[in-house]
């Protein structure tokens, strides 16, 4: 097997789609958002990407059938822009692997004619979030205007630690290929899977790309999480005096 | 030395053999099972596989003679299907290495004409096992029927963490080559070497491939382990109140 | 993307420049010194070096614009020798990467005609430093004379652990290319970012290369650190009995 | 720089030399033994081996001159067999690197016409050693006889964990090239640098290769260690009740 193998599952009739990436990361915000797009819209699986830098693993489905771990591209047509959605269960396991994978992802995006990309993710605040601000970063300052109109906040030199992983490289390597790339980071505690943060990110995407989504499924997941969050609040306020960093061990 | 070097030790007159893999893993179930096949049947060493991804190590035999660590293929003729048994002392030490090794193993299997593969292993239950169920996963749903007849259980989306290592990749990469691959996972505590689980797995293999084995040697090893298990039970029931996860430190 | 990619940003009219390296390390001495050179002198960005061995990361600037992490070369003309200053936020993340990166750095240096190189860094003393001695190491014994005149100390077999990372390899690999390479190591506690040590190193560089620098900005940073150091001294002398190695956790 | 670079320092007039390897390992037995050979005999540096798998490091000599870490081959003529002595300060830092390095070492050995190799090292006993037995392992059972005559012990399947690192691979890879390879392992506590164990190993080498060594320098080092050992014994016998594994933290 090559370091990376791209399997062509189907071709899609989508016009100048926008690449939307949502791989695992802080609060699983990006992954939740991308998967919600696939659940809410008619989507077509077009490519699978296998990589020796992914874990040596198969996942077993409801029928007991095993499939090699991979990243997937789905094509979605919306009333606004068409989307090419990248999601999966794994990031690369080495620095070099992250660069190699992101290059392969960008090759596929260019093959489909993508000139714009949105990397979806979360940014950790260290405490439970009341208002779900979406932080932005762009490959080109000219992209800021329409995003700020959509409610995205830009803070100088934030996130302080930079943006790491495939999301970061989509901006860094995409920029070098002339792709207009944006990273949308939903604020999230960093301790919990955060469907509300995912929704905040998707609402920005709706505004920027002029399409509309339902949110019932994300709301269901959000309610499940609310119960967990409720318990945490009790522990904190109920004088149980759990230091904040105890939270790191929850959820 | 190349990343992988295959040493041709002998050729074997076996017809369309079935690949049977048993490398180290949970409860050493797969390795115990594969080694028992070599002890119980007339087997012929046909290939050695050396890899720079194995530990930089030689093992010393009873005569003080050192040999480079490797994986081995043995050919076995049975009254049912012929077998090509893969075993050894090591898995690869990197993600990439697992993919590279499994590809090499499948090349050898195809060279011998294998169209079917069984990956043998264990699945951890976290507690001492009373009834040795064998869990299954397949590369193709059509393979389920005869396995269920042989007593294999298929549970949706299990094992939850997927199947990792060479066993997993034999299904994942084998499937992409058109090999019918099955993973048989004997339930085992995960704390102990488990000859009984190995026997449960082998009994499924006997039924599926229509041959018969003796089990004296595995029974001897099982009796040794019974004593250990007995002590553990005492500790647990004898009010010593050892929490289950203490078990992780035993055996 | 290749393992290493060199972006030509501009060409510079500098004559036989001296390579000056200051990447992150002990007390950030080298990085502080190199960045101070860029702040105090008119400098021109001439090359960017991207590497798959750097973290898979973009950094976000004051405008929210993201750029791929890289190392940078700036050209500086002084009244003395011209300088080619190498700085950045990261070392390589693997042994092989360090060798590969340093080779690329030396290729660029040779392209600009560098025949001399200074690697700037810190050497940890394990305790707060009163007098900022600069320790030296050279690729050729003949380089010692002028450095000793500039106040550099040479101690047999020191630093005991050798010199690690890009600084060390600039000497080791540079020597093999016939480049006269010197490592200037400012003594520093090893617990704190140390602008004073950076200044001590730069003052040697001024003397050796016959140019002059202002130090206002480094002095400002030094004053900030003085407050931290003051607190530490109190803790130590104030009978709070903090063992020295507690310091490891400060700053 | 290539993964491995071999620098030809000098050619040597040695006839069919025996390769003798002593790199860092348990108790530094092999390294002490090889360095003692270089101190006691007239030796000539013939090759240096640089590798990107070594630490990215230079060492500084008594004159403040820095040199890239490497492994070295020295040629020695004795009244018995001529020797090609391999020593250095580092093993490889990855599995693959160990294989690559050992292959390069064997290439050099074959270039000098070596048909025999001795890998020198230590085997940990876990307790202070009274009698310095030397354990042996060979690439071919026929090599045992003369070694047993020289006092080497062969124990079935020992060392239990196999022989790891360059020493192990010299046997494993050397055997595949038709080189008669022997590993001599001096028993040593595993907690301390052990000159006495190094001497025990060298005395076997003297007998096997029919040459003679002085031991003054090793005796001096042994006396230094004796003092440390004395203190340890006091601690153990003096009822201080230090559990044996405390020893792991000494020396």
From TrEMBL, chains A, B, C, D:
List the keywords (alphabetical): Coiled coil
Q: Which residues form a coiled coil?
A: 208-235
In which domain of life is the source organism classified?
Answer: Archaea
What SUPFAM superfamilies would the database entry show? Cgl1923-like (SSF159659)
Q: Which Pfam families match?
A: PAC2
**Entries under Gene3D superfamilies matching the protein:** PAC-like subunit (3.40.50.10900)
Q: Which residues cross the membrane?
A: none
* Identification of the protein by name: Archaeal enzyme of ATP-grasp superfamily
């Amino acid at each position: 097997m090559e370091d990376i193998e791209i399997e062509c599952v189907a071709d899609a009739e989508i016009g100048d789609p926008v690449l939307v990436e949502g791989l695992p990361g802080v609060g699983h915000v990006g992954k939740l958002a991308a998967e919600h797009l696939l659940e809410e819209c008619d989507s077509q699986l077009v490519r699978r990407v296998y990589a020796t830098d992914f874990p040596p693993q198969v996942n077993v489905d409801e029928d007991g059938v095993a499939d090699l771990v991979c990243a997937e591209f789905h094509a979605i047509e919306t009333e606004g822009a068409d989307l090419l959605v990248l999601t999966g269960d794994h990031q690369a396991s080495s620095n070099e692997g992250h660069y190699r994978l992101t290059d392969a992802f960008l090759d596929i995006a260019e093959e489909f004619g993508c000139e714009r990309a949105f990397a979806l993710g979360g940014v950790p605040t260290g405490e439970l979030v009341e208002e779900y601000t979406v932080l932005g970063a762009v490959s080109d300052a000219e992209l800021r205007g329409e995003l700020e109109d959509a409610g995205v906040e830009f803070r100088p030199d934030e996130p302080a630690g930079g943006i790491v992983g495939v999301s970061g490289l989509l901006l860094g390597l995409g920029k070098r290929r002339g792709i207009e790339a944006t990273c949308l980071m939903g604020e999230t505690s960093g301790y919990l899977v955060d469907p509300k943060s995912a929704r905040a990110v998707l609402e920005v995407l709706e505004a920027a790309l002029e399409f509309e989504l339902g949110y019932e499924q994300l709301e269901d997941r959000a309610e499940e999480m609310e119960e967990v969050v409720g318990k945490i609040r009790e522990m904190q306020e109920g004088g149980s005096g759990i230091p904040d960093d105890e939270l790191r061990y929850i959820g």
